[in-house]
């Protein structure tokens, strides 16, 4: 079976978040499951210096009176076992950011999405490799499903190809104007309620949802939640309409890249079957690095973007209270909303012995925080899957998280009766619920045996990509089995 991933991001070459990481690691597991998987991604500025072999034929996108031509390049790296095709169009993609720069979102983002998605359907003409399935990721690749249907309407004699749309975050939908739709070259009849039109505007994700053969999202709980007004981000009706074809497949993580026994960026290896020695050393080291004072008190870590979704404003407002009712210390690494960045920096100034803050994104520091902390905080308002809690768990940092989406699917909550719990889940996205969960965790930490048993269990949970790859493979088969 041949599958083409279509994505605006792929780690380690171009990423802004979880989407890039998934597209950079899931293909390896699919390949192990016997699937010939390849990836199509724009050649952003950050991919310019990669060794790329440029293919001869061009891809032409008909745009108004003028054609837009792009080329395809293949990553020329023998150590990289998955073929990566880069869509080369400097005018559209050779830019500072993937979606935006310091002036905000690029005004031609819809056109960039159309050119990428259209190229996915044309790729076979350049590569002579025809995918059975086009697997589009998020709004920027979502129109792929529409272009494929338009192509199949014209060429119904050919062996059909199928499409899968994976939603990594329903919040980002790619919303533009009707005029922008007219630039797509898609059939005009696709401008409809059961197509790309949503309340009078162009909605690329919705178009993908309506046109895809199947739709997946990155955890089973999120797949249920998004059918409701509360979590459907205004697309709940169309998700309900496509409900029979919508499935949740839990993300895995790359267990080799995230291995606390071999990770050179943490100060001491941590053995998942006997973590206490390694954890102790890593904790001492991170406390020293951040000049925090309390080795014998619970240390809580945060590694996150600081947006509304992540709920860290709740932590910010609860902190003064938590510092009174517990003896916890905090290390926070993140960036995002200015008021949150400032709020955390101010907190660190007020409580320098207990709170340390670093604004930014730093992969190796993130690893040291996972390795050095006793607990990991993730109070997300919604969370399609969440990768950080899975990394933290693997590095022996017990998660304290909101019961939503992938957090609910990856963490077994501590309750009065639980025996196999691997963390703490609280129901409501409010200050009081978060505070209670942290208080309970800090209380449990005092009972050494209780905590260390939970920590060992947490570290031993398998979250490899293999299971997910089997499920995707099954889904691809269902798609091809359609008549
Ligand atoms: C998005 C979601 C996150 C998910 C990731 C990968 O970033 O917000 O929850 O883990 O995509 O699917």
Which keywords apply here?
alpha/beta, Rossmann fold, 2 domains, 6-stranded parallel β-sheet, 20 strands, binds alpha-D-glucopyranose
Write up what this structure looks like.
The mean pLDDT is 96. Helix 3 crosses helix 5 and helix 11 crosses helix 16. With 483 residues, the chain is an alpha/beta fold. It is elongated. The chain folds into two domains: 267 residues, 3-Layer(aba) Sandwich (Rossmann fold); 185 residues, Rossmann fold, CATH 3.40.50.2000. The protein is built from 18 helices and 20 strands. The chain starts with a strand and ends with a helix. A nine-stranded mixed beta sheet has the order 3-4-5-2-1-8-9-13-14, sandwiched between helices. The structure holds alpha-D-glucopyranose (GLC). The site of alpha-D-glucopyranose has 14 residues, from helix 1. The site of alpha-D-glucopyranose (GLC) has 14 residues, from helix 1.
